Write the structure tokens for this entry.
Amino acid sequence: MKKPSMVLFDYGNTIITENLLGFEKGNEVLLSMAAENPQNITINELQPFIAGLIGEISDRMGAATRNRQPFEISWCSLNRYAYEYFGITFDKPYEELEEIYWDSIVTASPSENIEELLAFLGQNGIRTGVVSNLMYSGRTLRRRIERLIPDHGFEFILSSCDYVFRKPEEQLFGLALKKAGLNAENVWFCGDNPVCDIEGAHSAGMQPVWYKKTYIEKPDLKITLPRENYIAINDWAELKEIIKGCLD
């Protein structure tokens, strides 16, 4: 197996492990910050309204699940619509509100052994980047990653929010390759999602690495597990050893 010139990573439950506290917690915090709430809208009214919008958008896209949804929904656009619909205003821009919201709905920490792997990659001249399906902007994503993994600088960090297309669509992978200036066969892509990350990377011509530690099978989503030529790991220390073997 040939040493990769670059290793790209998914974000959520790949380089960072997140535990969801509840979407309503974010909107509760934002409602408490509202400059104006003329209808005295409560979380019990707001949360179902936003959930309904997300469901309607997905239905109109013809997407059965978020795994197959081709286009991204922007958190700022969606929530601006919902809040302005009820006449709710804020003193802060939505670009700041999305970060406050995200910090309120999850706890987050670096995945086990990811920092050691990233240091190893840097020491061996292997470039790194992040490509994530996310409603939040790349700016917000970069700030979060730099806060949680301060000792590693990713060459670029891409959020689908900024580029319309979601993984496994080829456009987001193609953009990453353009930014890297590399051919697909020289890039490995690591992620936890067998559809968005593994099928998507394989279709783009990259070497997929399936980080299975955080994957939970959900029969109702009807995901066909990948049959492609992927590397399966349960710990980032395993990938470090695999790449070590490519250096000889």
Notes: The chain has a mean pLDDT of 93. The longest strand covers residues 127-132. The chain has two domains: 6-18+109-247, 19-106.
